[in-house]
Write a structure and sequence with these properties.
143 residues, alpha+beta, Aminopeptidase, 8-stranded mixed sheet, 4 helices, 8 strands
Length: 143
């Protein structure tokens, strides 16, 4: 586990290039998601988060929408299974809870179901196709 991961909220206006570079590398290049599916004209209205390693390199990202949806969780392949996704997810969930959200939800790629389940998320329906990959909706109640 990478104990030196720092997850923090960032502004879309100042960090757009870094956020998009991570998303392009993971979603478009690695997973083959179409660029048109990755681009979101509403990104500027969402809350964005970055994870940095001890050298200050951005290694993961995620976002939170006003209605409580967590999305665009992406961690560089070389940094996976080292606590980066967990640090990001914990920070995003804490941010939602601090803003008095009653729950958060996400569309998990099916191969990430166990990761999210370990963090208190429960599947709430059948699998569905999103951007050419199988997903399922998962939800977590907040205190």
């Amino acid at each position: 586990m990478n104990l030196s991961v720092i997850a923090t909220e960032v502004s879309w206006s100042t960090h757009k290039d870094v956020l998009m570079a991570l998303r392009m590398q993971v979603f478009v290049e690695e997973q083959g998601i179409a660029l048109t599916d990755e681009l979101d004209p509403n990104d500027s209205s969402h809350r964005h988060f970055l994870a940095y390693d001890s050298s200050g390199q951005a290694i993961g990202c995620g976002r939170l929408t006003a209605d409580g949806q967590i999305g665009r969780m992406a961690v560089l392949q070389s940094q996976r299974r080292q606590g980066v996704g967990a640090a990001l997810l914990d920070h995003i969930v804490a941010t939602a809870a601090d803003n008095e959200a009653k729950y958060v939800f996400l569309h998990a790629q099916t191969d990430a179901k166990d990761f999210y389940a370990k963090h208190g998320f429960t599947a709430t329906g059948d699998t569905f196709d999103e951007a050419g990959l199988q997903h399922l909706t998962m939800r977590r109640s907040l205190p």
